[in-house]
């Protein structure tokens, strides 16, 4: 009886090995389209988004703005972190993404964003130099959403924290929570260490400015959290956003990143009209409808477009 | 996708936080805790129901309902209610291991040869002696198979702990996906699979050791 069991286990192992080697044949699990399938039909635009609520809302706004102009749209939201979705854009799995100019520049430029570049226009100029071949950016909006280091008002009072620099003497007692990608990103733990000389006691890999991070911060399970500046939970929970005097986080204007093959005057016209209407204030308001009032993303996107006369 | 992450000696250091041996250790820790708690809850209930035949309808249906609960959803719910930490993870994993242990304890007891139980009674054994000397040893093979399937499920599912900031081998999967490092994801998948096979072999040997030779 034991012998048959062991044989069964071994058989399972062999099956697993075969399955894994089958995985290896197709190096990219994201591209489920047959080769050349997406570029053949130029009328369909596949829109991707990162794995947080605002990116998904922006993706939905882009989608409905394009649909209003008669463009066929495919939604491929909630893909993951930048490391993941940029690859999907380059291999043609997706055509269009809402991006943040500063974070994108830091991700693409070798060694991070060049020194002295921080204003929206400077960032855009630098960004255009390093875009991957076959991609382009359209007009950037005035709306900005930055990464922040945020603490509760109690923590801020206890250690008298106003800026990120104030963390330096106390960081070795503090726990920071952010998305897992922060461990290996310049605009994460690496930049905090090299630019500010800050090393935290522990890093807790949670989500990118999402409910886990907010929850952990309010319950005191992390001391410092990476929360996005348009997040309404900052005001709701009376969090303190630490200033960034050394500009580790650059301008973060929202900008459509698109594959050149998918771009045409109809598409760019619709998206530039959206960018012209987006501001940090109205984005924060509409994002709160999704995050706080738990409204449907598609309905909120529609309300935004209707109110701004875009559909 | 390749095996470079798995075979990089730097990832096998015994002392570094986040090295593969440390992740295996924390992973096994979650698995063992969930199995212990699950057994403490499910085994007595299963034995009682199997021995007496009372409440079997409730037990079987509760067990099946437990099986259909999505662990990740339950985990996120627990984290929202209780905050981060080991407790929500253990609750989610324990709910996962209870059904197979409970139903196999029940089934093991119900499928006994009743003539043997009657013979034991006829020999003048007290009810507790019948339970511990006759019914339990005879039900062991079925109960162990339930325990082994619970162990395999929980080894694979304990990876969800990493979704809420804990360690375990899920760290390799979730961090690897977040930074687009498929070699790391593959390393995590392989280590989890190997761990499951090794654990099942250990339990198979344990079963051989504790089950009476006459029943094999």
CATH architecture descriptor of chain B: Orthogonal Bundle
Radius of gyration of chain B: 20 Å
Largest sheet of chain B: none
What overall form of chain B do the CA principal axes indicate?
A: elongated
- Please report the total strand number of chain B as a whole number: 0
- Count of extended strands of chain A: 10
The level 1 CATH classification of chain B is: Mainly Alpha
Q: CATH superfamily assignment of the largest domain in chain A?
A: Periplasmic binding protein-like II
What fraction, in percent, of the residue positions of chain A are helical? 40-55%
Unreliable spans of chain A are 13-27, 31-41
Q: CATH topology of chain B, what is it called?
A: MetI-like fold
Assembly context of the chains: heterodimer
Tally of separate helices of chain B: 8
Strand content of chain A: 15-25%
GO molecular function, one term (chain A): transmembrane transporter activity
Organism (chain A): Paractinoplanes toevensis
Domain ABC-type glycine betaine transport system substrate-binding (chain A): 44-307
Signal peptide (chain A): 1-24
Can you tell me about this structure?
The complex is a heterodimer of chains A (311) and B (216). Chain A is of the alpha/beta class. Chain A has helices at 2-25, 37-40, 53-68, 82-90, 101-108, 120-130, 153-158, 186-196, 211-218, 233-236, 265-277, 280-291, 297-307, and strands at residues 44-50, 72-80, 96-100, 135-137, 147-151, 175-178, 202-205, 224-228, 240-241, 254-259. Chain B has a single domain, classed as MetI-like fold, CATH 1.10.3720. Chain B is built from eight helices and no strands. Chain B has helices at residues 20-52, 56-68, 71-82, 86-110, 114-122, 127-157, 170-178, 182-210. In chain B, α3 crosses α4 (86-110), α5 packs antiparallel against α6 (127-157) and α7 (170-178) runs antiparallel to α8. Chain B is elongated and about 65 Å long. Chain A binds chain B through residues 1-2, 5-6, 9, 12-13, 16, 20, 23-24, 27, 29, 80-81, 83-84, 87, 177, 179-181, 183-185, 204-206, 211-212, 215-216, 219, 221, and chain B through 1-2, 79-80, 83-85, 162, 164-165, 171, 174-175, 177-180, 182, 186, 189-190, 193, 197, 200-201, 204-205, 207-208, 216.
């Amino acid at each position: 009886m034991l012998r048959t069991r062991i044989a069964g286990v071994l058989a399972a192992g062999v099956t697993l090995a075969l399955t894994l080697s089958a995985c290896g044949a197709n190096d990219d699990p994201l591209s489920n389209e047959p080769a050349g399938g997406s570029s053949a039909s130029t009328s369909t635009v596949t829109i991707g988004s990162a794995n947080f609520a605002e990116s998904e809302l922006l993706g939905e706004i882009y989608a409905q703005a394009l649909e209003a102009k008669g463009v066929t749209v495919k939604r491929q939201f909630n893909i993951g972190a930048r490391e993941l979705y940029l690859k999907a854009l380059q291999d043609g799995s997706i055509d269009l993404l809402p991006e943040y100019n500063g974070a994108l520049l830091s991700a693409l430029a070798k060694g991070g964003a060049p020194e002295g570049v921080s204003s929206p226009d400077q960032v855009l100029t630098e960004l255009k130099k390093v875009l991957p071949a076959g991609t382009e950016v359209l007009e950037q909006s005035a709306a900005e959403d930055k990464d922040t280091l945020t603490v509760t008002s109690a923590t801020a009072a206890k250690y008298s924290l106003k800026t990120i620099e104030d963390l330096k003497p106390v960081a070795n007692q503090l726990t920071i929570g952010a998305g897992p990608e922060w461990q290996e990103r310049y605009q994460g733990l690496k930049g905090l260490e090299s630019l500010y000389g800050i090393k935290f006691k522990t890093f807790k890999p949670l989500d990118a400015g999402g409910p886990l991070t907010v929850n952990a911060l309010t319950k005191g399970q992390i001391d410092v959290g990476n929360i996005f500046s348009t997040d309404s939970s900052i005001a709701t929970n009376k969090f303190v956003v630490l200033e960034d005097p050394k500009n580790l986080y650059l301008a973060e204007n929202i900008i459509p990143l698109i594959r050149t093959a998918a771009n045409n005057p109809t598409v760019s016209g619709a998206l530039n009209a959206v960018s012209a209407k987006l501001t940090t204030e109205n984005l924060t308001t509409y994002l709160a409808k999704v995050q706080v009032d738990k409204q449907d993303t598609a309905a909120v996107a529609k309300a935004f477009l209707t109110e701004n006369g875009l559909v | 996708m390749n095996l470079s992450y798995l075979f990089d000696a730097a990832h096998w250091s015994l002392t570094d936080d986040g090295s593969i041996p440390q992740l295996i250790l924390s992973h096994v820790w979650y698995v063992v805790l969930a199995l212990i708690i699950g057994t403490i809850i499910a085994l007595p209930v299963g034995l009682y129901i199997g021995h007496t035949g009372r409440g079997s309808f409730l037990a079987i249906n509760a067990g099946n309902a437990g099986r259909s609960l999505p662990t990740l959803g339950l985990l996120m719910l627990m984290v929202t209610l209780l905050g981060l930490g080991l407790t929500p993870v253990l609750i989610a994993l324990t709910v996962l291991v209870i059904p197979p242990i409970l139903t196999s304890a029940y089934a093991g007891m119900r499928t006994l040869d009743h003539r043997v139980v009657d013979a034991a009674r006829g020999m003048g054994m007290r009810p507790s002696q019948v339970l511990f000397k006759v019914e339990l040893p005879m039900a062991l093979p079925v109960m162990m198979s339930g325990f082994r399937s619970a162990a395999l499920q929980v080894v694979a599912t304990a990876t969800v702990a990493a979704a809420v900031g804990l360690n375990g081998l899920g760290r390799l999967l979730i961090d690897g996906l977040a930074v687009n490092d498929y070699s790391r994801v593959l390393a995590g998948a392989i280590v989890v699979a190997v761990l499951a096979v090794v654990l099942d072999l250990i339990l198979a040997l344990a079963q051989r050791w504790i089950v009476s030779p006459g029943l094999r």
